[in-house]
Amino acid sequence: MRTAEDLFLAERPRLLALGFRMLGSAADAEDVVQEAWLRLHGAAAPDNPAAWLTTVTTRLCLDRLRARARRPEQLGAFTPEMAGGVDPVAETVLVDEVGRALLVLLDRLGPEERVAYVLHDLFAVPFAEIAPMVRRTPATAKKLASRARGKVRGAGAPEAGDRAVAERFLAAARSGNIGALLAVLAPDVVRTAEPAALPLGAEPVLRGADEVVRETVLLRARARYAAVLLIDGAPGLVVAPDGVPRAALRLTVRENRIAAYEVIAEPSRLASLTLTR
Question: Which residues are CB-contacts of 168 (< 8 A; sequence separation ≥ 6)?
Answer without folding.
Answer: 180, 183, 184
